[in-house]
Design goal:
single chain; Aminopeptidase; 7-stranded mixed beta sheet; 30% helix
Length: 167
């Protein structure tokens, strides 16, 4: 698996991911997803890339099959910390792809000079929590009712990793 910057050429690849009920359930992607969302999402990440405030990568296997997205929704350069995230297409789940994506994304973040990586994982998503644990992230606690999704408020667990933590 390899990561490459999310770009215009990848827009057609993410349609299935954005239509997946599990992806929508556990992410901040709006439901229903507006038709203009993929392009606006890409534009936000491209702007953030230029400003140094966010980054996004597509994950591809050796045959260039799309496996998912590895995201950095926010980068605080002054505090040297970032929020990371990952989404895996349904066909690639259960094969270690999320773990590999998060490991690679974490390496990228520390190579950028960041000193703290954070994950905000929907409290109802134990599979993602297991990925965080496998990648050396430490669960710090629960943020109650931190995000509004549709008609409900979502609780999220907070995870972090520092450069000196064991991987």
């Amino acid at each position: 698996m390899r990561l490459e910057p999310f770009a215009e050429a990848h827009l057609s690849l993410i349609a299935g991911l954005l239509a997946d009920p599990e992806t929508l359930r556990f992410t901040r992607i709006p439901e229903p997803t507006p038709p203009e969302f993929p392009r606006e999402w890409l534009e936000r990440y491209e702007t953030g890339r230029r400003e140094g405030t966010r980054e996004a990568f597509v994950a591809l296997d050796d045959t260039r099959t799309f496996l998912g997205l590895a995201l950095v929704p926010s980068i605080d350069r002054e505090a040297r910390e970032a929020e990371l995230g990952y989404m895996v297409v349904p066909e690639a789940r259960g094969r270690g792809v999320a773990t590999e994506m998060l490991q690679e994304l974490t390496r990228w973040a520390f190579a950028q000079g960041l000193e703290r990586c954070e994950l905000f994982i929907d409290a109802r998503n134990p599979a993602s929590a297991r990925v965080a644990e496998r990648c050396g992230y430490v669960r710090e606690g629960l943020l109650r009712s931190v995000h509004h999704k549709g008609e409900e408020r979502i609780d999220a667990t907070v995870w972090s990793r520092l450069p000196g933590d064991p991987g």
